[in-house]
């Protein structure tokens, strides 16, 4: 009952993920990324521990397919209930579908991106997501990821109503470039679209506030009378 996409942008080096499901608060349980390292999706009877484990393996330099191999042969007795996808620092992808996944599930891939789904209305959902992702390569990665979720919904979505959705993009800093979540809303994907459209013009401003708060790009003008007063220059002793 979850569909998602993970990708690397070759223009910017960003990694990003977008995910939606009918249960509450999908973001912190399913989507994991680290700047310069890669991205991991874990879903279907999710084990959130697999996200950080996958990122640690990617940080060692392992390719996506080998990360999947390590995660699925580590002795987890419940691994056949999991669905995983990985994108590594070179844009290579890996995927795993356990043999105890319920109902319709599948995947679709393109250069640097992979979409996965389970308990959806039809097997076309991942392919529709990848088609939408590929449609406008000039757009920011976050925009392409949200468009992919919208296309997955239009292609049938999951069996229940999607109630949570998340968008995560990382670039160069230790903090995310974009981290937007809809934790419980009957129009979760529409609400995620609203949040992204609102946040999009401010992405660079918030980075500037962290790295160079004195620049005009930081976008903050203090109200009249509230600017800090200059420190007086001491008068030399005579």
Coarse shape: globular
Beta-strand percentage range: 15-25%
- Strand line-up of the largest beta sheet: 7-8-1-2-9-10
Class based on secondary structure composition and strand pairing: alpha+beta
Order of helices and strands: EEHEEHHEEEEHHEEHH
User: What is the average per-residue confidence, as pLDDT, rounded to a whole number?
Assistant: 94
Helix content: 25-40%
Describe the protein's architecture and organization.
- With 238 residues, this protein is of the alpha+beta class.
- 29% of the residues lie in helices and 25% in strands.
- It contains 7 helices and 10 strands.
- The longest helix has 14 residues, at 141-154.
- The radius of gyration is 21 Å and the shape is globular.
Which terms summarize this structure?
238 residues, alpha+beta, six-stranded antiparallel sheet, four-stranded antiparallel sheet, 7 helices, 29% helix, 25% strand, globular
Helix and strand topology:
Layout: E1 2-8, E2 15-21, H1 27-30, E3 31-34, E4 38-43, H2 50-59, H3 64-72, E5 83-88, E6 93-97, E7 105-110, E8 113-118, H4 125-135, H5 141-154, E9 164-170, E10 178-182, H6 188-199, H7 203-211
Helix pairs in contact: 2-3, 4-5, 5-6
